[in-house]
């Protein structure tokens, strides 16, 4: 183990339904590849996230079904936990925002900002129903978006262009309850003083040289137009405002986005408590040597490169108004905001409402998790918008995973199992043998360097290039023609199996499920790649059980270096590691898609 602490902060999926493959290609798989690599390299990784359960869309869904927002959140939290676990995403803790712990941490951040003068009260215009005189929560107001002209925009957000709105901004606002035009009256809210962070944010971004240029440029451009932003909302579902006159109010809550980003901290604190050392989170959040990488899709950059850093700077007392850290002490800012671009599907934007969608659970019912993980790594939206097509998925699976990596594993281990029954004892190695082993063992450094910088596409391509070298070696040496020379055959098979052991290490961050299988095919015992597990806990205020994702990732044998195979280790005939797909799946899936789009 190194002493390097790395926080992997993964975007919080919103608990309004199951995840689709566009979601997990943005935040899910890349954050897991990164974490698995660093754990193999001996670094101390803390990977946290959870479901984001407050905000208007969940209350709208609850109203529509006649249930409580918590019931909607409870249901979708379980669905999402299953989606992420099915993909093997190795969270140290995947929790949720409706815990008492999360509320307490969110309130502490608010109070720290208040103490240092970075939030201030301001009277704005809020909506009431003219006929009843009661406050109209944002979700009950609809109108035309002032930015894109969409006529179904809600009081807090336009679902067409994605911009955050205030109800008073809507053109022709109407109450969804009775169709009347709301009356706007004075309403008090707390605002985050974003202009006070302009210099501190600019100085910090000026030191972030390693970021993807599009993310950095986008973030720097945001600084040109910083305005105070409402920290509270007219809504009855969310974290309460921790002030004497506000705590018990039914109609005011902390804005969902301001509590969701606090989740990275609250989940770390919850993880520490569950680990038995309540102070353990401080290693990742307060040590100057620790790094924090935040993973998300590009639509969330603003909350991770502007809002959350501003909350942290204000809590620390490190912006224009000065101040001192709150009771937690000084908290680290992100090392890097790792944002991916968008995945489209067969040329169309993913949309659950228009049913242009492939849900993770449907995908995993028909295909292997590693097949999707491989596609996302090699052809996903790492640095440009990318299209998922079934034809390309089929090609990548069959030509690269099955015919490339799977075939190398299968034919080498089959031949060794059949002829020797164990990992063969090699004789003197030839130049060709030594050259291949130098290539495979030497690939850990360059592939690791790419993974450390989140150049995952280049990393997986380099690993697969090495697989190609091993396949070429096997074809050139043709051990199946060496029946008359078993000593040489055994040296070739030994060399091939050692190359497979190395390639399996290189591919383990991407393909943890098949990496475990290859480990076992090579006669390995125990756990190579640790899978996440789901635990039922009962920490919500009323003691209802809910699932968290966690895992004992330190117990896996996977390491980021060449591990020598041991001649004489028994081998049995392998089963295929990957599933070759019939080309007919393309038409079947497109037909399913056509039905869904109707
Ligand atoms: Zn709009």
Write the layout of secondary structure elements.
Blueprint (H helix, E strand, L loop, with lengths): L4 E6 L10 H20 L3 E8 L4 H10 L3 H18 L6 E4 L3 H16 L3 E10 L12 E4 L8 E2 L16 E5 L7 E10 L5 H9 L6 H10 L6 E2 L1 E3 L17 E3 L1 H5 L2 H13 L6 H4 L5 E7 L3 H16 L19 E5 L2 E3 L2 E2 L10 H7 L2 H11 L6 E3 L1 H30 L11 H12 L1 H9 L3 H22 L8 H22 L4 H10 L11 E5 L8 E5 L33 H14 L1
Parallel strand pairs: 1-2, 1-12, 2-3, 12-13, 14-16
Antiparallel strand pairs: 4-8, 5-6, 5-7, 8-9, 10-11, 14-15, 17-18
Helix pairs in contact: 2-3, 4-8, 4-10, 6-10, 12-13, 12-16, 13-16, 13-17, 14-16, 14-17, 15-16, 16-17, 17-18
Bound molecules: zinc ion.
Zinc ion binds next to loops.
Keywords:
three-stranded antiparallel sheet; 19 helices; binds zinc ion; elongated; five-stranded parallel sheet; alpha/beta; single chain; 598 residues; 18 strands; 15% strand
